[in-house]
Design brief:
By secondary structure, this protein is an alpha/beta fold. The chain is 49% helix and 17% strand. It has helices spanning 28-43, 66-69, 74-93, 109-115, 143-151, 153-162, 168-174, 186-198, 202-215, 220-234, 238-248, and strands at residues 4-9, 12-17, 49-54, 59-61, 97-102, 105-107, 119-123, 127-129, 166-167, 179-181. A hairpin with a 2-residue loop joins strand 1 (4-9) and strand 2 (12-17). Helix 9 (202-215) runs antiparallel to helix 10 (220-234). The longest helix has 20 residues, at 74-93.
C-alpha cells in the first residue's frame, strides 16, 4: 500500500493514513487502500481494536482530495462517493471496536471517516468541520447522514450550511468527540482505552455494537427485539459461562471468545 500503514501489536491495529504532504487528503487510491485494509482487519481474530489516525502533527484527514475532484465528471463524483460509502461502512460495521485518534484537522472526508468509527478521541488541537458547500458541493462521504445521527439534525445542518469549523472542546460538548486530550498523549490514550476494551468480552462487545448500530436505524420495538435475540445468543458462549462463574467465584474472568 502506498498511502496506508498498518501495524498490529497486542491485538490492536494502528492504521495510519500517510499522505502528510496533502494533509492526508482522501483520494480514490487511498479510499481503495482503506477498503482493502478494513476487509483484512474484519476477518482477523488476532485484532480486537482498530485505531485510525493520520500522519504528521497538522491533520488527521484534511478532507477529500480537491485536486482529484476539480475536473471530475458527475459519474466520477458519484463513483468516489460510492467508494467512500463502501470503505466507511466496512469500518463502521466490522466486529472490532474502532477508535479515531483525531489530531489536527478533521475536515470534510476527515470528519466523515471519524464518524464511521465507534469512538472519537480528539487532541486539543483538533478541528472538525464539513466545508463542502463552500466549494459548491455537499458532503459525499456520509456527512449528511452520520453527523445528524451523532449531534442532531439542527446542529448538523448548521455546520454543513455555514462550513464553520469547531474546536475539540466544542466537538466534545456537542457529542462529536468522546474525549479531548493533549496532542502528545493522543495515541497512548487511545491504546489505553483499547486495552481496557480488549479486557472485556470481545464477542459480547461485537454483539452490542451490532445491536446499537442496527437499532439506531430502526424503530424501538424492533431494536428491543434484536437486543433480546443477541442477548440470548450471548448465552451460548464460553465467555458467558466463564464470566458469570468468575463473578460468583470472585476471580478475574478469562474471556476468550471472538
Amino acid at each position: 500500500m502506498n498511502n496506508v500503514i498498518m501495524e498490529v501489536n497486542d491485538e490492536i491495529a494502528l492504521v495510519t493514513i500517510n499522505r502528510p504532504k496533502s494533509l492526508n487528503a482522501l483520494n480514490s487510491e487511498t479510499l481503495a487502500e482503506l477498503d482493502q485494509c478494513f476487509d483484512e482487519i474484519s476477518t482477523r481474530k488476532d485484532i480486537k481494536v482498530l485505531i485510525l489516525t493520520g500522519s504528521g502533527q497538522k491533520a488527521f484527514v484534511a478532507g477529500a482530495d480537491i485536486s482529484e475532484m476539480v475536473n471530475a465528471t458527475p459519474a466520477e463524483g458519484r463513483q468516489m462517493g460510492m467508494l467512500a460509502k463502501q470503505a466507511f461502512l466496512k469500518l463502521e460495521t466490522m466486529p472490532q471496536v474502532t477508535i479515531a485518534a483525531v489530531n489536527g484537522y478533521a475536515l470534510g472526508g476527515g470528519c466523515e471517516i471519524s464518524m464511521a468509527c465507534d469512538i472519537r478521541i480528539a487532541s486539543d488541537n483538533a478541528r472538525f468541520g464539513q466545508p463542502e458547500t463552500g466549494l459548491g458541493i455537499l458532503p459525499g462521504f456520509g456527512g449528511t447522514q452520520r453527523l445528524a445521527r451523532l449531534i442532531g439534525k439542527g446542529r448538523a445542518k448548521e455546520l454543513i450550511f455555514t462550513c464553520d469549523q469547531i474546536e475539540a472542546q466544542e466537538a466534545y460538548r456537542i457529542g462529536l468527540a468522546n474525549k479531548v486530550v493533549p496532542q502528545d498523549e493522543l495515541i497512548d490514550t487511545c491504546k489505553k482505552m483499547a486495552a481496557k476494551i480488549i479486557s472485556k468480552g470481545s464477542y459480547a462487545i461485537s454483539l452490542a455494537k451490532e445491536a446499537i448500530n442496527t437499532g439506531m436505524d430502526t424503530d424501538l420495538s424492533s431494536g428491543l427485539t434484536l437486543e433480546a435475540d443477541l442477548f440470548g445468543l450471548s448465552f451460548s458462549t464460553h465467555d458467558k459461562t466463564e464470566g458469570m462463574t468468575a463473578f460468583l467465584e470472585k476471580r478475574k474472568a478469562d474471556l476468550t471468545d471472538f
